[in-house]
Amino acid sequence: MRVSRSWLQAAPIAFALVATVATGVRAAEIRVDRIAATSQGFLYLEYELVTPFEGIYFEAIQSGLPTTLNYTIEVWRQRSGWWDKLEDTYEREFRLLHDVLNGEYLVNTSDETTSFSTLDSLTAAVCRFQRGSREGPEYFSPQLFSPDDRYYVVITATLAPLTVEDLNELDTWLRGTLGGREDSGGISGLSRTIGGLLMSMTGFGDRRVKLRTRDFRPRDLEPEPRRLEVPQRPQPAATTPAPRLAVPDSGGSS
Question: What is the pTM for the complete model shown?
């Protein structure tokens, strides 16, 4: 009987994953650094998902099993005598992959695919949302809030294996996007069949972490004053300065 290359490549992965099912998992947590406002009145939330990849989740990613990391950010308004009102919901999704043959960690979003050399650098990119970081914080429009009402934000992070359908879709997409890897194994070596087998053998299920922030009132988040611009030399009368777009400046926290 002829055994396909995909099965031969995936077999060590399957045994490695099964061997780690009983491994203990440290508790992941979400840490909120601050709730603040820009000088234009946009509220933002800086937060971090701490120790998301532990135990079987670490082994699964290291062994090449594609995984999704999804964030749901909900803005709630408190109401006395009523159920709190959900004002808006924001979503972020990352598909995480380890190309075990090429030694790359890949992050796929709806916009792009980015490679990282280590799991630590990947973790910093998809788990830390601060001003100045690769993935900035969520910005909330001032029109979303009433200055004197009280609000809070609920953040939910979900780490889950890709479904068998997702594996097939991602495999096809990567073959067309990452040139020269049609027969390189690694990610593409995980077929739909072996992907489903690995998930059923390991019991690798969803890992969900949730946090509710402290209550806050928008008027208490006093924004920083606008920065003073350095005076420019007078321009010749014939020169028309190009229009400038406003860029969110640094914010101040409560």
Answer: 0.67
